[in-house]
Amino acid sequence: MIKPELLVTPTNLSDIDKLADAGADAVIIGEQRFGLRLAGEFNREAVKEAVEIAHKKNVKVYVAMNGVYHNEILDEIEDYIAFLRDANVDAIVFGDPAVLMSVRAIAPNMQLHWNTETTATNWFTCNYWGKRGSKRAVLARELSFEAVAEIKENAKVEIEVQVHGMTAMFQSKRSLVGNYFEYQGKNLEIVEQKKYEENMFLVDHERNNKYPIFEDQNGTHIMSPNDICIVNELEELVDAGIDSFKIDGVLKSSEYIIEVTKLYRQAIDLCVEDRGAYEEIKDELFDKIEAIQPINRPLDTGFFFKETVY
What we know:
Elements: E1 5-8, H1 13-22, E2 26-29, H2 44-56, E3 60-65, H3 74-87, E4 91-94, H4 97-106, E5 111-114, H5 123-131, E6 134-138, H6 145-154, E7 158-165, E8 168-172, H7 176-183, E9 201-204, E10 209-216, E11 219-223, E12 227-229, H8 235-240, E13 244-247, H9 254-273, H10 275-291, E14 299-300
Parallel strand pairs: 1-2, 1-13, 2-3, 3-4, 4-5, 5-6, 6-7, 7-13, 12-14
Antiparallel strand pairs: 7-12, 8-11, 9-10, 10-11
Helix pairs in contact: 1-2, 1-9, 3-4, 9-10
């Protein structure tokens, strides 16, 4: 039985060593200039240091280049890819075909993970990008267990699935929050250092939900009101042979991400090696995560148990 990779999103350099000790197999980092909704900002110097720290602990480093690119950034892509090649990162996560074409020319040995956030919903599309050089497909979050298993059964590339954390519900390249405040005659400056404003929500009184919202160089992002957590529901994904489980730590503290990583490491190991022991302890693991959940962030199973409608 394949033991899935445990992929985690660090918030800063000091997280990486701790996440390695907590059981992470890989981390995904980058900067908002090129990547979407990262847990932390890693400039070029930080990327080089991250690779050095991670590789000493046998942890892989993936760099996000899955932003929604407009023409003004295209000239920067090749230079950034050349930097990542020289920094010896393990893979680039991409969505825009411009990244694929540039990698072919500049770093032909670089591994690619295809991630367009929402459109990886069937095995045919995953294989399409696999034939063009992608080693892995990152599945959309709006899929059931049944759909994920079907994709994995027919895919000729690795499959990555998010198992924990919040998910994006909406993105606009426009600064919607800033424009709203400007319309009201107020000034809300969205700067890089404050891209994740605390306590900024859209409130739905009818559903009693609070949707975190933030702005950065990629525009406006509205996130899910709940966090996915399937630490006690891993059996189907493990049995299906999913290659990578992702813990998304966006808008979470370092301490939270590290503790959750420890609990998922225990869950994955037991689920693969001793299924009976996992069955006995899985609800306890869920309770431990629930006990450290931030206020207004209830846990659910996302779309995994939703009925697939054709």
